[in-house]
Amino acid sequence: MRVLGLQSGTSHDGIDAAVVEFRIDEQPHGVAPHSAAPHGVALRGTVLHTAETPYAPELRARLVAALPPAATTLAEVCELDTLIGQAFAEAAAAAADAVGGVDAVCSHGQTVFHWIEEGRARGTLQIGQPAWIAERTGAPVVSDMRIRDIAAGGQGAPLVSLLDDLLLRNALSEGGVAAALNLGGIANVTVVGSGPVLGYDIGPANALIDAVIQDRGLDERGYDADGRIAAAGRVDEHLLAALLDDPYYALPAPKSTGKEHFHLAYVRDHVAAQGRGIADADLVRTLTELTVRTVARDIAARGVAFLAVSGGGAHNPVVMDGLRAALDGVEVVPADALGAPADAKEAILFALIGWCTLNGVPAVLPGATGASAPRILGTITPGSGPLRLPEPVAGIASLTLD
To answer: Cα separation of 251 and 255, whole Å?
Structure first.
């Protein structure tokens, strides 16, 4: 089965696509005790194509302007749902054409709100109407994955723990602990080898840094390319201490967060509370150090010996050098070492979730999201023909990517 995964993350900069051809190598057999399913197949995925499609500048500007804590209207949400759905449809058509067609699409869409109340996820909203994708490609579309996990008592995140668990098993030494870290707008981690799989959002990765750079016009690309701005600044320890005092960091896992909490106004309030001016480079450096310290603290506390890193933050040398310095004795590598290209990992994840949904396989790891039990995720929008699902399989015992 050839599945196209589509996603846009908390940086809101564009659409990532990955076409993966999945095939079953072996009949069902037993799996490791920490895995999501008691029995499963050996699955092999061949990554046929990856691509990144930036949002049109005017669409991205409208999207960012509508995000919390800004006020918006239902009319704007409706229009953005259509416009983003059409942008996803064009990206999907291009990816499908590049490989001669796909059997299915799995689209995460664009998160615009993740409702957390008293530490519990109450709801989540991803827009980018999947009907546009189905109409454009003719393929069935799996979408709206996170809400089923929330309905089952989970946080709706991090869903990437499904992929991380399968890939980390290949790197896990006997008795060791391995982790996969994604540094997008928010930093999330999956920890394998210390009992049941654990996954959660650590805190901001690029969200606050990007917000300041865009607000102050420090780089027209909207992010700290190669960490140049941070490298030119110094850590403001007083501001950092105040940022580290956020109660979110003390919450037990599993937990999730987003730009509803960590946004530009959040930074402005903290800077204003200092009662003094802070140079732009020093502010960016301090926010970068916030990512380093919160991530390093959690990774060290879990006893991790092997850490695979993906996401935009993996390209920031100030972040990566900081993590390696703070995590002496931990092997820190790009996610490519696990077989998943670091910049396409989450698109590959949604291709995998699409395969799981269509094959009747739960894609929720309760230890990662807090759900009461594994659940099959998503809703399905039929393509141009009748919807025919494969015979369900028991689960995935192993995954190899090539």
So the answer is: 7
- The beta-strand segments (E) located in 325-384 are 331-334, 379-381
By DSSP bridging, strand 104-117 and strand 141-143 are: parallel
| Alpha carbon distance, N-terminus to C-terminus of the chain | 15
Q: What are phi and psi of 151, to 5 degrees?
A: -60, -25
Residue 34 has pLDDT above 50, yes or no: no
User: Which amino acid, one-letter code, is at 296?
Assistant: A
Q: Is the pLDDT of residue 37 over 60?
A: no
Residues contacting 393, CB < 8 A, separation 6+: 24, 28, 40, 41, 359, 360, 361
Give the closest residue to 291 by CA, choosing from 158, 167, 189, 222.
Answer: 189
Structure tokens at 287: 């926010």
Strands (E), 9-85: 14-24, 29-30, 39-54
Q: What is the mean pLDDT of residues 357-383?
A: 95
Report whether 266 contacts 290 (CB < 8 A): no
Residue 17: both structure tokens together:
């696509």
198: closest CA among 186, 180, 215?
Answer: 180
Confidence band (pLDDT; 50, 70, 90) for 12? confident
Q: Maximum CA pair distance of the chain?
A: 65
- DSSP state letters, 372-388: SS-----EEE--SS---
Task: List strand residue ranges (DSSP E) for 134-213, in order.
Answer: 141-143, 178-183, 186-192, 198-204
**DSSP 8-state assignment for residue 66:** H
Distances, alpha carbon 162 to alpha carbons 16, 37, 157, 268, 342, in Å:
19, 11, 11, 36, 16
Query: Contact 222/206 with Cβ under 8 angstroms?
Result: no
The answer on pLDDT for 27 being more than 70 is no
Q: What's the pLDDT band for 13 if we cut at 50, 70, 90?
A: confident
Predicted confidence (pLDDT) per residue in 285-337, tens digit? 999 999 999 999 999 999 999 999 999 999 999 999 999 999 999 999 998 88
Alpha-carbon separation of residue 267 from 80, 98, 118, 263 (angstroms): 27, 42, 22, 7
Residue 237: φ, ψ to 5° = -65, -30
Return the pLDDT at 20: 98
